[in-house]
Amino acid sequence: MIKNVDLILNKQYMLVLNQKTRCLLIFSILNFSNILIAQESKLWGVTSTEGKYGYGTIFYIDKQGNTFNKVHDFDGETGYPVSSLTLCNKKIWGMTQGDSPNLKAKIHGAIFMIDTNGSGYKIVSEFNGLNGSIPLGELIVFKDHLFGMTLMGGTHNSGIIFRIHQDGTNFKKLYDLKKIDGTHPRNSLFLYEDKLWGITSRGGTENKGTIFNINTDGSNFKKIYDFKNSSIIEPESGLIYKNNTFWSMCTRGGKHNEGGIFKINLDGSSFKIVHHFMYPALGDLIESNGKLWGMTASRGKYNAGEIFYINPNDNSYTKVHDFDKTNGRFPEGNLYESNHTLYGMTRFGGKHNLGVIFSISNNGKSFKKLFDLNKDTGGAPYGTLIEITKK
To answer: Residues 116-172: pLDDT tens digits?
Structure first.
């Protein structure tokens, strides 16, 4: 990287005056643009299948979709990844799910880290059932720790809440979920006002899921809301905070028994359905351009899923894109926003029916398929892309 310089631009050349040596260097604008492109951020993600051993991969790709790099092939020893990656302490963290019909023995999953240059893959903690099993959501960072949940395992085999130090040590089970609390969380925790907030897909008074919060040391677990059979139920999405309320989505119940979007006050009051789905959304809502964006996994014009946003000011729902199978099918993860553009992945569809990576502007226009995943790159991605800039 060129440091400590003064830059002078004209239409054809950039003059670089080194402040230390006072030497004048001349670059063509074109060549310097290539230098900038080489240093720009990359989008990192994981796939759940294919790759060298058939258990998925870790990869990164530039935001134009021109250069794809696979940095790790999972061998199935700790399962395969469905959780999104997380950047913490200059390391990239992730989790493997574990249990699979293709695995030879019962595996509960693991937490791993890898360097931002794609080297140094390392398992830092393994789940063993009692301390959790099958993590589905991503890790979140707060102070010196990363926090997460598992779908199953723990004392009641109903899932747990856990933390691990950002150096990879001191894994600690914070809380064993049980039926009255809510069980089997399928998403990530959400940090708000120094508390961890979450949703379970089962358990509670009617066994249709709950919303809860808990202190970051594992104390003072509090159930905020029980989902009811008469409403939308079985949430798989995590929470997002907007306009002094939490928003999320359910996969069942409602007018079409396919779930919907809801909002709720932080004290559990004023639960309101703001949209009924024709097919569930399996990822989370994200905020961009003042709207809450998400994807349904199917239906739409070509029965391959759609991208939508909801306006939190008037609760209006707008569909902005229909996947048509060639440009992706069955999105199951979340969108990611960078510089007014949303990026995402589909689990299937594309040239090899192993999923695609795509972008769309946050005004709902200019959809572009960036990359077709294949057997070598890995396929069937579930999670979210994250952006990492190497300095």
So the answer is: 999 999 999 999 999 999 999 999 999 999 999 999 999 999 999 999 999 999 999
**Helix residue spans in 76-214 (DSSP H):** none
What's the residue count for the chain?
A: 391
Smallest CA-to-CA distance from 379 within 328, 323, 322 is with 328
Q: Phi, psi at residue 31, to the nearest 5°?
A: -65, -40
C-alpha span between 90 and 101 (Å, rounded): 34
What is the distance between the alpha carbons of residues 230 and 113, in angstroms, rounded to a whole number? 43
Q: Is the dihedral of CA 105, 109, 111, 116 positive or negative?
A: positive
Region for residue 51 given its phi and psi (left: phi exceeds 0; alpha: psi -120 to 50; beta: otherwise): left
Q: Which 3 state secondary structure label does DSSP give 374?
A: coil
The answer to whether 32 and 12 are in contact (CB under 8 A) is no
Separation between Cα atoms, residue 315 and residue 274, nearest integer Å = 6
Positive or negative: CA dihedral 20, 23, 28, 34: negative
Closest-CA residue to 161 (of 151, 149, 153, 172) = 149
The SS3 of residue 200 is: strand
Distances 167 to 71, 86, 140 between C-alpha atoms, Å:
22, 14, 14
**Is the Cα torsion angle 227, 230, 232, 234 positive or negative in sign?**
positive
Of the candidates 296, 311, 292, 304, the one whose C-alpha atom is nearest the C-alpha of residue 251 is 296
Instruction: Output the six-digit token pair for 243.
Output: 């306009």
Over the stretch 189-243, which tens digit does the pLDDT of each residue have? Answer: 999 999 999 999 999 999 999 999 999 999 999 999 999 999 999 999 999 999 9
Q: Is 168 left (phi over 0), alpha (psi -120 to 50) or beta?
A: left
Q: Which of 183, 185, 164 is nearest to 173 (CA)?
A: 164
CA distance 379 to 384: 14
**Do residues 150 and 183 make contact, with C-beta atoms less than 8 angstroms apart?**
no
